[in-house]
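TL;DR need structure tokens for one chain.
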Amino acid sequence: KQIEPVGPHGEVILEFSVYDALEAGFDKAVFVIKKAIEHDFREIIGKRIEKMIDVEYAFQELDDIPAPYTVPENRVKPWGTGQAVLCAKNLINGPFAVINADDFYGADAFMKIREGLRDPDDYCMVGYRLANTLSDNGSVSRGVCDIKDGCLADINEHTALTKDSGLDPDTVVSMNMWGLKPDIFPVLRKKFDEFLATSDITKDEFQIPKVIDSVIKSGLHRVRVYHTDSVWYGMTYHEDKKQVADAIKKMTDEGIYPEELWK
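>> reply
TL;DR here they are.
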């Protein structure tokens, strides 16, 4: 999904995210990928983006786990978003945003997360209206946010959500757009060790929301929620690709994006 072309000149979703991040004031991108796809990633995406912003690569590998743990023979999928962020720890020394490579977040979301990162104390996240994150082609899972005094109190995963699920369309959900600080890395390390010790490591994934929950519960940081009316687009289903491409074409026609992102 990360390398599916959706832009008028074959751009992938990630390129629009980097463009929006640049416009919002970010000046560095760290891509977390598997070493095995580095060549293809650089050829298809990296070379264009590297002309516009400082780029570094971190590699997420199955065997990158601490002793005494070993990878089960039948483990195939990556360890999850929590480990992906942990893989980038040596390349980050200041406040940073985390996104999924195959999600289209919208320009306003990047402006909001950049604003949130200026806070010297709090972490932050961008919250979306549920109605702006649903697919026309099937059900989705979303992290429904419990917000108190402008800060995240809890996230509960809801599965099989559609436009007819009965949840208020204005319900705030997380799409994994986080604003964090480097002191998250020791927490990620500790929680990853706990995950390996207590989970079914043949299939379970170490995900960011659970780590964020521990940060909130421990009082290390509050997580301030910034709301956006941007429409999220993703490719949960094969049929979603046309909807994403049509939306980006419309935004290009309206001048939100230039005809060519990387002239």
